[in-house]
Amino acid sequence: MVARSSTRIFGLVFTSLGLASIIVALSNAWASGVSFLDLSALNVFLWANRFNIGFGIEFEPIYLIIVGAVTILLGVSLLACRTERIEEVTVITDDVTATLECTFCGYQWKELFSEKQLESMGFPRNRKISRRKCVVCGRFTRPKIIEVRTPRAF
Ligand SMILES: [Zn+2]
Fold it and tell me: Where are the domains of the chain?
């Protein structure tokens, strides 16, 4: 949960930093009277000018654009990886409630399974699941699946 939200925050921060540096470079060009429609003039400005970020550090605005683009890509991929993880979680939480019955005493109880788990046990062909101890009669049984309910509406 913490990892997921920090990935999202980093993604957003990187994306906005990247956008900000591109906007800074372009607004500098605009402030110097370079029209964005004049691509060659913009190109000359981006390569020829020095952009001062203070502390005596200067670089051409084109690097601001390149770094900005890379940072946006990084941010977007972080956001995308977060989306992927959410999908994964959705699969895991695809839980079904199974009503199980002890084959000895007929005691019934409910257990949560993921759909994948049920599939791997051979359900619905195989309606018996792995051995477990019945809490009522205390015997080891392979309980029978009586009923399976999905919490989803469809
Ligand atoms: Zn039992």
Answer: 2-92, 95-149
pLDDT over 50 (residue 153): no
56 three-state secondary structure: coil
Q: Which residues pair with 109 in a beta bridge?
A: 100
Instruction: Please tell me the distance between residue 147's alpha carbon and the centre of ligand 1 in angstroms.
Output: 17
Please answer whether residues 19 and 26 qualify as being in contact, where contact means their C-beta atoms are separated by less than 8 angstroms. Answer: no
pLDDT in tens, 42-101: 888 888 777 676 777 777 888 888 989 999 999 998 888 766 666 665 555 578 899 999
DSSP-H helix ranges across 32-145: 39-48, 61-92, 115-120
Residue with tokens 């990892």: 3
Ligand 1 center to residue 119 CA distance, Å?
25
Instruction: Give CA torsion, residues 78, 79, 81, 87, to 10 deg.
Output: 170
Ligand 1 centroid distance, CA of 125 (Å) = 23
Which strand (E) or helix (H) includes residue 19?
helix 2-31
Phi, psi of 142 (to 5 degrees): -100, 95
